[in-house]
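User: I'm new to structure prediction. If I give you an amino acid sequence, what do you actually give back? Let's try with this one:
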Amino acid sequence: MNRHGFVLALSLLAQASAAIAHNPDETRARSVQVPDHRLSDLPCVRGRAGVFPCQNLNLLAFVPKSEFGIELSAVGGLSETWGWHDAVTGDEYIIQGVSNGVHFLRVNDPLNPEYLGTMPNTAAAQLVWYDMKVNDTWLYTVSESVPHHVRVFDLTQLRGASGSDNLFLDAGRYLPNQSAHNIVINEATDYAYVVGGNFGQGIRDECSGGLIALDLSNPILPLNAGCWDGDAYVHDSQCIVYNGPDTEHLGKEICLNSNGDNFSIVDFSDKAKPVRLGELNYQLTAYVHQGWISDDHRTFFLGDELDEQNYGINTRTLIVDLDDLDKPRLLKDFIHRTRATDHNMYVKDGLLYQSNYAAGLRILDTARAREGQLELLASFDTFPDHDEATFDGSWGNYPFLPSGTIAVSSGEEGLFLLRLNPAERDESPASAGRDTSVPARAGGVMGLASTALLILAFAARTRRRRQR
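Assistant: Good question. You get back a string of structure tokens that encode the predicted 3D arrangement of the chain. For your 468 residues, that looks like this:
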């Protein structure tokens, strides 16, 4: 077989295996209601921001898929989104994964995000799955495209960058991994963890698609420091320095793994000898996908990506007790009112930010999570056509910028910049915002009682944090 045929064969294997990682029949549709041009400054008024159903979230800006170099009819689109706050300049950036590469936007003015350019995907296969994380001023990216490797990018290149046609180059690579599904970084220890490595090739890496610990002491030359293959394939993980109630493991580096078929907890303090502490299996398991730990490290919020489709249930968030890391236990299956498939979620200041595909971004108060309750505080539907259990709509979100700007990626629509607004403005939908080409649509009214409850919830959370 010649080189071209070999690369083509690898690409086909990558596409087949990457699809299996989620669902053999995975497809994504584009909303017929979302325009293919920028939108700016659309406040949420009486349950709508233009065509988008919303609650207590204003649309600051929308950047369509086509601005990232992907035609509307083309295969591929947006995947994970991340961010970077430059501590030196104060600038804020959104980093967007797209099938054709990693794209950078400066969002100091979130009403007018400044598109700066891309670090192109040079792999033969241009697959949609992209993931990236930041450590200090360095970005580490992976993709299921083959060959992609772990690519290292110096984010200080963005300082002073102007124009929209910049082509940025990586500063280094970790070559043993041809492809990977995800990358995790523990900024407290300067270690990255590659998961799902080489899985897209059908030939798993030396860790069987599990966790590969990379020492980032030299940012542009990541070094393999250890391996966890006890769960075989790991789909996603969060690695932390544990600071919760289980005193036996206080201060240890703990990785919380979503493995497709179960949830596991691994002590990775000794990179040469990681140890499984505990695992969790639960009823109606379909695809254990991703999750995030609470601020106090007592609770883990876990998502199963295929349970809504496979079992016909509403959106489900599994609330897991971590008081004993050796024996994690399910506290509650929290069932939402929507049917949408859940995807990536994050916790910040007691709020759970969930990207639930066709239902968009949903923000929930976790104050009563250990009682099995999550309270919906805000939402923004990036895919207004329906809320069914599909892969249409929001893939991920990034709620950690100091300004409060929230980035939300929606696969075939584009990038949304949002901001929480505890009390919706009482304005006419027809006159709100700058997008006069998008007709206002009637929607549900958020009453004074609901607004009052939201304000009280925010106030209550503030009081609780002060009392701790």
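You can read the tokens as a compact description of the fold. Here is one thing that stands out. The mean pLDDT is 86.
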